[in-house]
Specification:
Structural class: alpha+beta
Strand content: 25-35%
Radius of gyration: 18 Å
Largest sheet: 5 strands, mixed, barrel
Number of helices: 6
Order of helices and strands: EEHEEEEEEHHHHH
CATH superfamily of the largest domain: LON domain-like
Number of domains: 2
CATH topology of the largest domain: Archaeosine Trna-guanine Transglycosylase, Chain: A, domain 4
């Protein structure tokens, strides 16, 4: 997809502790009336929605939003018997919010720009060696296990390296702020470094906790 094909004004779906990256695919279960409406409208136009994390500030019903999110295209749509929508969203390009648009809809819309992340639209080959990921895998496996997360490592290891790093960044049991740091990392190498930094803080915390007991 070219940058010109991406709409300047997109509906946004604020979800805490949830990020997507370009060229990743995520399933979403939509049940709130305002987001059902958002998907209805989106399916009639570009089928593009913006996933963004809400901050812990602002009003409860309308929290402040982080500046950076990721636009995704609805590539699959199913309606359940009880009126929920099951969609598959395919990440396309990250965006920066210019301003929120006042509308009469129940859902929120923002004017966005993609320039800062135009590299997302270019197919790139891996610049990271799989051996670089060994330590990340080792540390993440320990963290996932400790937090009771289940993950299919064999499936992840079949992916390309950029998909692997992005999948791990999305699935990790990190905080909202940590996930935002990973989302905003300009490129893959920076994301890998941030992933290592965040993991190290968890390992140090676990080590300290063990020595205190």
């Amino acid at each position: 997809m070219k940058k010109e094909d991406l709409p300047d004004i997109i509906p946004v779906f604020p979800l805490s502790n949830f990020i997507i990256f370009p060229r990743t695919t995520v399933p979403l279960n939509i049940f709130e009336p305002r987001y059902i409406k958002m998907i209805d409208e989106s399916m009639k136009s570009s089928r593009i929605i913006g996933m963004i994390q809400p901050k812990k500030t602002g009003e409860l019903k309308k929290p402040d939003l982080y500046d950076v999110g990721c636009a995704g295209k609805i590539t699959s749509f199913n309606e359940t018997d009880d009126g929920r929508y099951l969609i598959i969203l395919n990440g396309i390009c990250r965006f920066k919010i210019k301003e929120e648009v006042n509308n009469d809809n129940l859902y929120r819309e923002c004017e966005v720009k993609y320039e800062d992340f135009s590299g997302d639209l270019v197919e790139k080959s891996d610049q990271i060696k799989f051996s670089d990921l060994k330590l990340i895998f080792h540390n993440l496996k320990g963290l996932f296990k400790k937090q009771g997360y289940e993950i299919n490592w064999k499936e992840i290891e079949k992916q390309s390296l950029d998909q692997t790093i992005n999948t791990l960044s999305m699935a990790s049991p990190f905080s909202l702020e940590e996930k935002q740091v990973l989302l905003e990392s300009k490129d893959l190498n920076m994301r890998k470094e941030k992933l290592e930094e965040i993991l190290n803080t968890y390992i140090v915390d676990n080590f300290n906790n063990k020595t205190l007991q």
